[in-house]
Each structure stands twice: as C-alpha cells, then as structure tokens.
Amino acid sequence: MNLNLQDALALLYTGSGSQRAIARTLGISHQKVGRILRTGQEGGFKPNSRALADPGLIAVVNRALSDHSKAAAAVAASQGLPFDPRYPVLSQRMAFREPGRTHVLGDRVEALHTHWLSNALREAWLKAMHRSGRFYSVSAGSIVNLIVYGKRADIDARGKLRTQNQLAAKANIKRQIKANMAQGIIQTPYIIFTKGALPVQYLLSELNDRLNEKHKSATGEDMPGTAFATRFLFQIDTRAGKDDKFRKAHPIPARGSSPAKTTAPKHSKARGSTGSAKRKR
Predict the structure, then answer these.
(1) CB within 8 A of 75, min separation 6: which ones?
(2) What average pLDDT does the segment 63-75 reach?
(3) CB of 20 closer than 8 Å to CB of 30
(4) Degrees (nearest 5) of the Cα angle 230, 68, 94?
(5) How many other CB atoms are found less than 10 A from the CB of residue 81?
(6) pLDDT band at residue 173, thresholds of 50, 70 and 90?
(7) What is the distance, to the nearest Å, from the Cα of residue 114 to the centroid of all Cα atoms in its chain?
(8) HEC states along the chain?
(9) Residue 43 region, left (φ>0) first, then alpha (ψ -120 to 50), else beta?
(10) Within 10 Å of residue 176's Cβ, how many Cβ atoms?
(11) Sign of the CA dihedral 49, 53, 59, 64?
(12) 265 with 78: CB under 8 angstroms?
C-alpha cells in the first residue's frame, strides 16, 4: 500500500511515542503534527488540504521515515524478529522481570504507540507479521477509561459466572480507580496467530471483534488520555527450534543466578520506512 503523510507520521509515532518528538524531528509545530495525524477527523486537515501536498514537508517526512525504518529494522535483526520495511512498526522483545533475568530478552514482543495507525495500515502490518510464521499468539491492548470500562464489563457479566482471571482483573481495576488512576492499559485475551492454523482474515476479524466489543466504548476523543489499539503483544513461536538461533546467543540463566547484562536496546526515538509518503491528489 502507498503511505500518505498520516500513515508516515503514525509509523514515526510507534518509535517516538509523542507528537512533540516528531515535531522536533520534522522541524514543524506539534500542533501541525496533530493535525496531520487527525487527517479527515475533527481537528485535523481535510484529506485534500494543500498543506498535505507541500513538497518540502513530504521530503522531510520521507527522510525521517527512512531513518526510522533503518533503526526499527536494526532492532528486529538484533533480536531475531520479523520486519517488513513497507510497514515499519517498531517492535522489541520484552525483558524478563524475574530477579537474575531482568537483563535477558524474553519470548514476548511488544509494539507500542500503535493507536495512530489507520485500520488499513494496522491490518497490513499484522498480516505481514502473520506471514513471517514467527509468532504463536497475539493480544491487542488499549488505554481505556477504567470507570467506563468497568461499568461495561459489569453489564456484560450479568447473569454469568466470572472466571478467576476475570475476577482478578475486576479487582485490579477497582484498585487502580481507588488510587485515582482514571486510565489503564487493558489487553484482549491472546488468540492463536500461527501461520496456517486458520485464515489470517479470520484471525484478524476475531482480534478486531474483541477490540471493538471490549475497548471501543471506553476510548475516544471525549475521554482524554485513552488510546484505542495502542499496544500489541506477540508470543514468539519457540516450537521445533524456531527461536533457537536467538536463544543460543542469549541464553536464559537459571533462576537465582546473576548473569552479565545483555543488550535490551531502547529506541524511544526510532524513525521511519522505506515506503514513501505520497502526495495527496
């Protein structure tokens, strides 16, 4: 797919995590970044706006996108992860949290700040990740309004027995609300994401159904601080030696040991893609 300016900035956002960081990179105001990200929405540029066809802006965005793509590709290569330069979403392995293992990269992969990706771009990226055959399962997360989300969950659970996990999730939401935390990250349950298991379109439909059913009503412009589909978690498929090359180079120490630190790079400001933003016509 051809990337427009909104797509390009949405991809940059997966590395920078802020409009101000993108603005500094591009040499424009963060207000203009916001208007580009909201193209076609309230508060954004109209899709046929002359501002989006500015050759100078397109050139600087394409340079930033190229830099971002190279940085994201380098992270993927160093961590044994799939990467498609057409959809350069930054993703990284998550480090273990257990004592003695906190500097070792694990088998879960995290992609953050994905909420500006259009539905089409997000689907194209997820399809590319599925084609790689490197992941066993996937979960999507949103930053939701916890009060709204909790009320909706209670309505959905009426007349039903909650599982232990559901009860624990409800208790955790109550604790966060009591601590005056208005927003929090909520993940969908993992779904199988193995290549060949089921048609990819079926898997993506299931994932989107869960997102829309559980998260949509508790996110939106009228609920500041929320973000829909802003985090994706993938479980690497380690069966049949699929991850042996990386794991042999980054062994998991026994519990209680004190391993030397390994590299868990932080690329909070990684940028862009080999796909070029196209002028709007």
Answers:
(1) 81, 90, 91, 92, 265, 267, 270
(2) 98
(3) yes
(4) 50
(5) 21
(6) confident
(7) 4
(8) CCECHHHHHHHHHHHHCCHHHHHHHHCCCHHHHHHHHCCCCCCCCCCCCHHHHCHHHHHHHHHHHHHHHHHHHHHHHHCCCCCCCCCCCCCEEEECCCCCCCCCEEEEEEEECCCCCCHHHHHHHHHHHHHCCCEEEEEEEEEEEHHHHHHHHHHHHCCCCCCHHHHHHHHHHHHHHHCCCCEEEEECCCEECCCCCCCHHHHHHHHHHHHHHHCHHHCCCCCCCCEEEEEEEEEECCHHHCCHHHHHHCCCCCCCCCCCCCCCCCCCCCCCCCCCECCCC
(9) left
(10) 16
(11) positive
(12) yes
Please report where in the chains the tokens 């909104």 appear, as a residue. 6
Q: Please list, in sequence order, all residues whose beta carbon lies within 8 angstroms of the beta carbon of residue 54, skipping any fewer than 6 positions away.
A: none
Residues 6+ apart with CB under 8 A from 1: 86, 120, 121, 124, 275
Tokens of 87: 């959809």
For residue 83, give both structure tokens.
């990467």
Amino acid at 79: Q
Length of the chain as a residue count: 281
Which tens digits make up the pLDDT trace of 101-143?
888 999 999 999 999 999 999 999 999 999 999 999 999 999 9
* Count of CB atoms situated within 10 Å of the CB of 79: 19
* The residue type at 114: T
